[in-house]
Write a structure and sequence with these properties.
eight-stranded antiparallel sheet; five-stranded antiparallel sheet
Length: 301
């Protein structure tokens, strides 16, 4: 059974927190931005995602803690998009650049919700020309727990050809607190010489888009804390992942104080450059679907 509770209000509109729980995991999701506000690995009684306690902090947040990102992910320089031979000017929300879908991106919307037994369906709309994008876009995101796995299923449809790249921007810390330089990482990289394949203990900062080997739902990455013995395995059918080690985080007052490298993001997505260059886009009236699985194990090491 899913628990629903009021989390706050924005301009008179209610924002709710929905708690999904089973034997292994307890996850709290907001219908503001589709945010994963907390994710507790119950065997360790440990919240492994960064976030805030109040809605006001999420509204003001520039770190995109736990949010659904779209219509597009990552940064578009000078907020200019050359799409199918025509230039479009997008909203500027990062200096002169366009970041993570812009001013009215999916991370800043109050989503409609529907509880389906043990799963939560959120839905949101983006209007034609909103933030400079083409078409009326409809997006649905389904969250469900299956034993030790949190599955996020995305679907979208638009009435015009439009750039589209969606992901979840959760910051994980498998210790719950502190930096992540005791975490090991493994990526199923297309480039076999990628240093993340051969040197698994994190030793430096990353903000890198990584091509992933194979097609369909397959293992994208593994992360492991040698302190808590928690492993996070990520599966998806997306071709790439953005690996980010919270390089710009500093003295952020969240559920606790967060500093530089106190979390990591594993954002399944298309290659952002392919989207910017129009090589990959959501075709008119064609439904797009993708799934990402976050699987938590306790290893005896």
């Amino acid at each position: 059974m899913i628990k629903k509770e009021l989390f706050g209000e924005i301009n008179g509109k209610s924002v709710y927190a929905f708690t999904l729980e089973n034997t292994y995991l307890k996850v709290k999701i907001l219908n503001f931005g589709g945010i994963i506000q907390s994710l507790v690995v119950k065997e360790k009684n440990l919240d492994v995602v960064l976030g805030y306690e109040s809605l006001d902090c999420y509204v003001a947040d520039k770190n995109y803690f736990g949010a659904i990102i779209g219509r597009t992910v990552n940064s578009i320089k000078n907020a200019k998009l050359d799409f199918l031979g025509k230039e479009y000017l997008l909203s500027k929300n990062d200096g002169e650049d366009h970041l993570h879908g812009g001013v009215n991106g999916l991370s800043k919307k109050i989503w409609n919700y529907k509880i389906n037994e043990d799963s939560l369906m959120l839905s949101a709309s983006c209007l034609d020309k909103e933030d400079g994008y083409l078409g009326n876009l409809q997006v649905k995101v389904l969250y469900e727990l299956n034993q030790n796995s949190l599955c996020i299923n995305y679907s979208a449809i638009c009435d015009k050809d439009t750039p589209f790249n969606i992901t979840n921007h959760s910051y994980f810390n498998l210790d719950g607190i502190g930096d992540i330089f005791n975490h090991y990482f493994k990526f199923n990289c297309l480039n076999k010489d990628n240093e993340l394949n051969s040197d698994n203990l994190l030793k430096k900062e990353y903000d890198e888009n990584i091509d992933i080997y194979g097609e369909g739902v397959r293992e994208i990455s593994k992360a492991y804390s040698q302190t808590t013995n928690i492993e996070l395995k990520v599966l998806s059918d997306m071709p790439c992942v953005q690996f980010y080690t919270a390089n710009e985080l500093g003295k952020t007052k969240g559920k606790r104080e967060y500093n530089r490298n106190n979390g990591f993001c594993v954002e399944t997505q298309f290659n952002p450059q392919d989207v910017i260059k129009g090589k990959v886009y959501l075709e008119k009236n064609k439904t797009f679907k993708t799934s990402t699985f976050f699987i938590f194990n306790i290893l005896n090491k």
